[in-house]
Amino acid sequence: MSDTANESDRETVRLCQIAADEGDATAQNNLAVFHQLGFGGLLKDDCEASRLFKLAADQGNALAQANLGLFYERGRGGLPKDEHEAARLYSLSAGQGNLTGRNNIAVYYQQGRGGLPKDEHEAARLYRLSADQGDACAQCNLGRLYDAGRGVPQDDTAALGWYRKAADRGYAGAQCNLGLFYERGRGGLPKDEHEAARLYTLSANQGNLTARNNIAVYYQQGRGGLPRDDHAAARLYRLSAVEGDAPAQYNLGRLYAAGKGVPQDDAAALSWYRKAAEQGYAAAQCDLGVIYDEGRGVPQDDAVALGWYRRAAEQGHANAQFYLAGMFDKGQGVPQDYSEALSWLRKAADQRHAGAQFNIGVFYEKGFGGLPKDEHEAARFYKLAADQGHSYGQAKLGYFYERGLGGLPKDDHEAARLSWTTVELQCGRTCLRNTPSTFRQAPTLGMISISIKRWNTAPKVLTDRIIFLSRLSMRRSRPSVAAWRISRA
Questions:
Q1: Number of domains observed in the structure of the chain
Q2: Which of 156, 216, 330, 388 has the fewest CB atoms within 10 Å of its CB?
Q3: For residue 480, is it within any domain?
């Protein structure tokens, strides 16, 4: 025994040991917990805990059955990892009305584990039985089902109600999820980042990894009434990252990549991205693809980049779908395949990815990927991209208005408005010189003089819009050649 326990705790253990030796199942379960926690001067000993849990479980003690099931699930105390045996023990415990056993077997039904069929309706039924009896874990899990509409109809109000019940009992997972509802203004709640931050903090203080990551984001961005503090964000990300939390690993990697809150370190960034990516975190997989695609701190490798893009894209990550489409479009690491590129572009465009929408417009305009040339569809996709502020989409749409293509009316005013926005976004305000404010307000009135430092590298779609604006200005105001000259210096 350890020397640090107080006499009261030692006496509790001594009396429990006597009762356990006499075969009392409750005492055996409690003594097992003491060995598991290292309570009352006992050394932590999972093997002794599992032995005692088994003695109590064999006598039909429901709590010991649930505890022994958890040891089998995790392969602790010298036991093999065996989810079938865990499910059997959870079922025995649940059959006696034990809330922990019932919640755990519900998780197995929800996820189709331990030889049980995946059955979210049965999971919801079991969660409800325990939730109605006040079990906070089951209340939170039932809230998650209502949140996602799995096994029950999707219902933000019901989800909020169950999260609140569990959060009021101090359950960390529910506090975190309730914080998300306040952050996003769901379930009839007002958007309130201060309340979200308070709930995330309560949850994070109990060790909840998601909440710790979320409060780190708030420190990083200075939200929820918290000061902007990259160092605090890095510290919190690290706490969760070392425990294996994939979003925290990814976010910590981003801080290392940018040198915010930590020294800039590409190798450390790559290491954290990889840890998150290997756990299936799509954003990290996509960023790893970019790193290998561009050879940032690693040898450029199309095959590796393609593999990471595909893994993220197959999870529905829109940027990865877009980048994967680009590889098929260019024949980079794979045979060129416009049809496959178009397929991935459509998946990204369905998620409102502006770059994908613009490129589908190009496919329709040029007749790529097996599509017929269709300027009406091209115009529609260019507008979808332009409406999200995509500069090339605005440029193309401006071109279509200038020429009256794709069913659009010929409209120099709208063409100029879109073209001006494109030039301003791509070149920056410092590249636009001596431009009267009247031009921005009413493009038909002013004059424009534009200087672009890197003219030779400007994309054609951009230079086309600059030339159009200059010609339009000359037509409207008849300036001297010097007044609308485009500098190629």
A1: 1
A2: 330
A3: yes
